[in-house]
Specification:
By secondary structure, this protein is of the alpha/beta class. It folds into two domains: 7-208, Vaccinia Virus protein VP39 (Rossmann fold); 219-285, Helicase, Ruva Protein, domain 3. It is 40% helix and 18% strand. The longest helix is centred in the C-terminal third of the chain and has 13 residues, at 219-231. The termini are far apart.
Amino acid sequence: MAYLGNPKETIAVLQKYGFNFQKKFGQNFLIDTHVLNKIVDAAGVTRDDLVLEIGPGIGTLTQYLCENARKVIAVEIDRNLIPILQDTLSEYDNVTVINEDILKVDLVKLAQEENGGRPIKVVANLPYYITTPIIMGLFEQHVPVESITVMVQKEVAVRMQAGPGSKDYGALSLAVQFYAEPYIAANVPQNCFMPRPDVSSAVIRLRVHDDPPVKVKNEKLLFDLIRASFNQRRKTLQNGLGNAQNLHFTKEQIAAAIEAIGLAPSVRGEALTLMQFAALADVLDAV
């Protein structure tokens, strides 16, 4: 059997099918067995697991997942890749390929039908242009997920892991950390892909919390406050929230809420922890 982690095999498959890379789908295929092993190890895939793979490409990572998981469901948007996947995965009877846009798939229903509603593991070499919508979609739809282990742009991985006060800390850091515990498992150089991407990459594992680390009465308000406070990073928290179109609090109410949680009027959003944002949301929710 031909393992696609070997660059020669990847080239042979691409030539056999006359495949052309689609920039619009952000296609960069992995050609490094060491990195492939690292992804599967970081994800902790076992024979008990149902794995959802997003964007399998020609099936490089999929082969590794099939050898370790009970079942793999691979969702691929590019229909030109479907015949290739039927070929490269022909020896596995524990994989289902779905030709669909992942953002349009009912993943809650999928987990229910394929795994009896038990948590699934998500593993993927993600298209970088839609990394955030995919990950936030999994969280916000409350898909039963145990962990998400994905290849992303390195700077995005750093942002997900960042803490208050650092230049990388922002709305994405807080959103990810509300739902999961991030851990960067590997940094991946550009030469591990075909074609080479313009940016460095990293494998990040997000272990989903059983319960969020903070309790908040109004989750939507919490994220509205977080987004508004980082939309204008240079401004104080008070001004950022006061200028937000979708928040309808007076300047006085915002000032009083910031004071009520023990912060100075001049504080910036990037200084607040997730717990402080939750406390602020609870105070404003009661207004």
